[in-house]
Amino acid sequence: MKNGKYGFGIIGLGMISSFHAKAIGCLDDAWLVAGFDMVPGRAAAFCKDKEGVVPYDDLDEFLKNPDIDIVTVTTPSGAHMDVALKAMEAGKNVIVEKPMEVTVERIDRLIECARKNKVMLSGVFQSRFNEVSRLVKKAIDEGRFGKLTLCDAQVKWFRSQEYYDSVGWRGTWKLDGGGALMNQGIHAVDLLQWLCGPVKSVMAFADTLGHERIEVEDTAAAVLKFDNGAIGVIEGSTAVYPGFLKKLEICGTRGTAVIEEESLKLWKFIDETEEDAEICRKYVDGVEQRGGGGASDPASISFTGHARCFADVIRALSTGTEPEVTAQEARKSVEIITSIYKSAATGLLVAL
Ligand SMILES: NC(=O)c1ccc[n+]([C@@H]2O[C@H](COP(=O)([O-])OP(=O)(O)OC[C@H]3O[C@@H](n4cnc5c(N)ncnc54)[C@H](O)[C@@H]3O)[C@@H](O)[C@H]2O)c1
Predict the structure, then answer these.
(1) pLDDT band at 296 (very low <50, low <70, confident <90, very high)
(2) What pLDDT shows up at residue 295?
(3) Which of 44, 225, 287, 325 could form a disulfide with 55 if both were Cys (CB 3.0 to 4.6 A apart)?
(4) How many whole angstroms from 346 Cα to the centroid of ligand 1?
(5) DSSP state, 126?
(6) Residues 146, 118 share a domain
(7) Is the CB of 127 under 6 A from ligand 1?
(8) Are residues 290 and 309 both part of a single domain?
């Protein structure tokens, strides 16, 4: 830490790294120290317009920089583990992009390494930090929905063939770990399980319907049974033109909330409170969407969510507590999605 600020370093300087840089830049108690990419010259290009930020083409040299307290990992999903292990072995706290890795076994290796090296390991699920997600979570915790009955998530997005063709790792099992669910749908899967989970079992179909030359699914649907008895459906696709905002429907015997991105489409309870009218005014009628939520363009998201996520890690480090998105938390959506893939491949119900 320097001058009361946590130093950040970014590994993997592609599309999402610029969102990380902006998020770090808007936090009072954080500064961007350095960037590393395995492609020579990419770090120099990334740092060119960022005064004082040091570019590295060598990971060991990057990790020797004593000003880096927190490393964010933004390499392709199946290339998170190797660099994150090295960073933690070098004593750095690590924030890993979603999905934390592409299998639970690889995530378990990360968790074990963090424990051994006594560093913090956390994931990125920025949707958990928006105001609407937190309102729904609070209402569930207070029992306002009664008994949860149907809890669904829909991520009907559009990605062109060029999107998959443009970068070699997209649409591969090894580095993307899956398709419409593991890459795009995972934020909704995480929110659904955070709000209504744990998930007990899944039954699913998955297929590649709208793209060529990809190994993974671009369309999937799963029926879930939750531990609390509720039933749910997850639908995910990157083959739905023009692409729609991410939607969650949380329905119970005493109330329903329909979330669309960061707004509410419905907020209705048998036992209404005075606060409900204000919530409807603010979030059902009054919310302006920040960006397109990634529905048809991966870059049409806001960096605000990442800033909230990083601020929470800083809060946890400075108070000696856990971050909200611990590695154990980040593991849950990967377990659900890999179970969905297993069910789709075998035609069997898969228990988690
Ligand atoms: N939280 C979100 O909303 C969000 C949004 C987009 C992407 N992501 C995640 O961020 C990650 C990166 O996605 P992207 O779209 O930025 O990918 P990208 O292909 O644009 O960038 C990846 C970068 O990592 C570099 N790289 C690859 N292997 C490396 C290694 N071993 N060491 C160092 N650098 C390496 C590549 O050269 C490239 O510059 C993925 O895991 C993705 O799921 C998260």
Answers:
(1) confident
(2) 78
(3) 44
(4) 31
(5) G
(6) no
(7) no
(8) no
Q: Which amino acid is at 126?
A: Q
User: What tens digit of pLDDT does each residue of 43-70 get?
Assistant: 999 999 999 999 999 999 999 999 999 9
Q: Are residues 285 and 142 part of one domain?
A: yes
* 271-293 pLDDT, tens digit each: 999 999 999 999 997 765 555 67
In a domain, 216, yes or no: yes
Indicate whether 92 and 158 sit together in one domain: no
Tally of domains within the chain: 2
Write the CATH number for 115.
3.40.50.720
What is the per-residue pLDDT for 224? 98
Asked if residue 84 is part of any domain, the answer here is yes
- The encoded tokens of residue 65 equal 């920089």
Q: What is the mean pLDDT of the chain?
A: 96
pLDDT tens-digit readout, 161-206: 999 999 999 999 999 999 999 999 999 999 999 999 999 999 999 9
Position 328 in a domain: no
Confirm whether 1 is domain-assigned.
no
CA dihedral 102, 165, 42, 92 (to 10 degrees): -10
Distance CA 145, CA 114 (A): 37
184 CA from centroid of ligand 1 (Å): 13
The domain of 10 spans: 6-126+304-323
Q: Does the beta carbon of 102 sit less than 6 angstroms from any atom of ligand 1?
A: no
The finding on whether 100 has its CB within 6 A of some atom of ligand 1 is no
What is the model's pLDDT at position 301? 75
Find the 37 Cα to ligand 1 centroid distance in Å.
Answer: 10
Q: Say if residue 112 is in the same domain as residue 142.
A: no
Encoding tokens for residue 262? 């960061």
Atom 32, ligand 1: which residue's CA is nearest?
38
Same-domain check for residues 189 and 309: no
